[in-house]
Amino acid sequence: MASPPAPSRVPGPTVADLIFSSEQANHNFSRVLGDLKRANLGISNRLRSIRQDAAFVGRIAAETSLPLVANERCGSWYIPPEHKGASAYFKSTDGHTGQRMGRCIIVDSTRRGKSMPDALSKTVPTWCCVLNRALFPSSPSSHALHVPQDVVSVSEKSQMEARMPAFLASFQHLEPDLSTIRLHLHKPLQPLWRTQDDDDKLGAGAFAARLAAVRRAGLHPVVCCTSSRRVRGAELSEAGYVQGAADDTENWALGLTAPVFWRHAGALLAAPEPDLPPLIGRLLREDGQWRAAAARETRTRVLPHVSVGSLPLCAAAAPGEPGEAWFVVAIVPRTTPESEWRKDKNRLEVGLGAGKGPRRMLRSALRHVSAAVEAFLRSEGGGPAGLAEKQVLVSCETGKDLAVGVALALYCWCFDEGGHGLVTSAGERPSFTKTMIKARLGRIMTAMPDANPSRSTLQSVNSFLMDWVR
Predict the structure, then answer these.
(1) What InterPro entries does the annotation carry (predicted)?
(2) 63, 75, 257, 373: which has the fewest C-beta neighbours closer than 10 Å?
């Protein structure tokens, strides 16, 4: 005898089902509900959620003994600075990495409504596949594309696979130094995925078993760790937990950064919500003084004659070694007309402002910067003669965006392919193409893996160079 069908589950009421006696009551309820949602997404709940998710990330690192790589911008919020091995900048459409150990945990998060960010489900697997094909061409068994089956559909995976040959060709056009990469990557890469839901879905030992199998197969595991727990219902039902709490910091953090948060986590987490804005302001002022002192020792040489640093570094008029002649280009976060840009024999201060405005103004500024730097590099007087002793320092507020774009423009405009010598004349300059510019950017990124020039910065550089006519 067949058992009776199970009774269907009747869905519970939602906010939309509520009926109010008047429009005013409905308006008041909506206002209260909005206030509750905003309170739930306040700074205090976000910071507590970040700490909770960071504990999960720390547990995975301890279980696997793998270094942690933060996928910026928000990945660093989930890793205390002393535990962060490196940074990466995988996005939904592109990315790069400086894997030095050949195995790592890449940390990122995603907001409510998704279980995993595209960077971890699609971009990192794409890069693993491309690198395997480039580094191990005679090992076709390592050329397959691996994606999380519960996130990426079969049809989408098929579309991604069809694009792999073109991705590989684009990568090879950059002329990467594969021999150097092979010194660090002796075995193919294999992506794995870890989320807070895995233990409930697969059992506590499932991930450890998968990781062990990858290692036995002679592969380097690249663990894609989604730090945030997935919220399926309304955020108000999560007792203050915010999925992807570190996303969109420009909208809630009041200037607070991940390093400042971790240096003062105790005070920030103990402070009530109303006290957080003034506390954050004070900590940021103190941090500015700390960064100004630390930044003087922090600059990266990206080319034989060009270094990149953050703005406090430029307080020193001559940061070089004895016998060196330096020219400092400072992209300062205040807007000033070109007529007020500070320029002397060894320094050019360009006021492009803060926010997204500087990137839009960068194109026109590059003409002046390139001319000033080229004049310095070709000059004989005012310092040690000859190019060998001359150095250029380019800095911006972060040392990773605008300064890198300017360094790229100088590399293309002033120097030969190796960056050791100057182009002898304007007629010797190559025809600038996106492929050529991208290849030179790749060399800079190899020297400075944590550089992160924005798309608009690179567009300004491309426009400046490609619009040039002999």
Answers:
(1) Rit1 (IPR007306), Rit1_DUSP-like (IPR033421), Rit1_N (IPR033449)
(2) 63
